[in-house]
Amino acid sequence: MNVGMRILVAEDERDLADLVAVGLRRHAMAVDVVYDGAAAVERLAVHDYDVLVLDRDLPEMHGDLVCGELVARGSRTRILMLTAAASVPERVAGLGMGADDYLPKPFDYTELVARVQALGRRSQSRVPPVLTRHGIVLDRHRLQASRDGRHLHLSLKEFAVLEVLMRADGAVVSAERLLEEAWDENADPFTTVVRVLVSRLRAKLGNPPCIQTVPGAGYLL
């Protein structure tokens, strides 16, 4: 179930839009519906949606323009584009504008739901390319990190652990989660590998100390 997933359906065929919304709600998704492109842009400016189900041929503002504006904004919202045009060039054009997936009409509702679920998972796990916290700047694409302008010489494992801690945004991260996300399946959960690496990472980050140990729970940044 995709509890907590928020979807915007932008489709001018009202019966179709409402049917799509009903189908998605049956999978525990929160769904808003609009019937033209201008209304879609207004909603997208107010709410943080996981997925936009976007009809390409919308009135008021064409779906292509809605897609372009969302992409230009750098939104995390994933776009599933719908259109009656099923030709390969049309699909390529839609994806080229920044849509994440493409579904020609008429479509099977089970396939629509599956595609929305897949896009929603990608949206919810999406992480900005650059993370910042406590003066630390972590560039995930370049594998570079600094603190207060000082370059940090981190091993790949130290970088991975720091990323997990920063992604938690101040929440406590358990040693088990660090093992799961920063080590492969061969890591021994009964060793002190996490404690040792966090200790090394603390030393490299320097003062003031920013990684706290929460007894019995884990670590937080």
Explain what the structure shows.
The chain has 221 residues and is of the alpha/beta class. The protein has two domains: 6-124, Rossmann fold; 130-220, Arc Repressor Mutant, subunit A (Orthogonal Bundle), CATH 1.10.10.10. Helix content is 41%, strand content 20%. It is built from eight helices and eleven strands. It has helices at residues 14-25, 37-46, 63-72, 88-96, 109-124, 156-167, 175-182, 193-205; strands at 6-10, 30-34, 51-55, 78-83, 101-104, 130-133, 136-139, 144-147, 150-151, 212-214, 218-220. A five-stranded parallel β-sheet has the order 2-1-3-4-5, with helices on both faces. Strands 6-7-8-9 form a four-stranded antiparallel β-sheet, covered by helices on one side. The protein has a two-stranded antiparallel sheet with strand order 10-11. Helix 2 (37-46) packs parallel to helix 3 and helix 6 packs across helix 8. The longest helix is centred in the middle third of the chain and has 16 residues, at 109-124. The protein is elongated.
Terminal CA distance reads 31 Å
CATH superfamily of the largest domain: Response regulator
CATH class of the largest domain: Alpha Beta
Second-tier CATH architecture of the largest domain: 3-Layer(aba) Sandwich
Strand order of the largest sheet: 2-1-3-4-5
Q: Spans of 5+ residues with little confidence (pLDDT < 50)?
A: none
Provide the CATH topology of the largest domain: Rossmann fold
Total strands: 11
Helix content: 40-55%
Number of domains: 2
Q: Report the radius of gyration as a whole number of Å.
A: 22 Å
Query: How many DSSP helices?
Result: 8
Query: What is the beta-strand fraction?
Result: 15-25%
> What average pLDDT do the residues reach?
84
Oligomer: single chain
Shape: elongated
Biggest sheet character: 5 strands, parallel
How do the SSEs run, as a string of H and E? EHEHEHEHEHEEEEHHHEE
Decide which structural class fits the backbone. Answer: alpha/beta
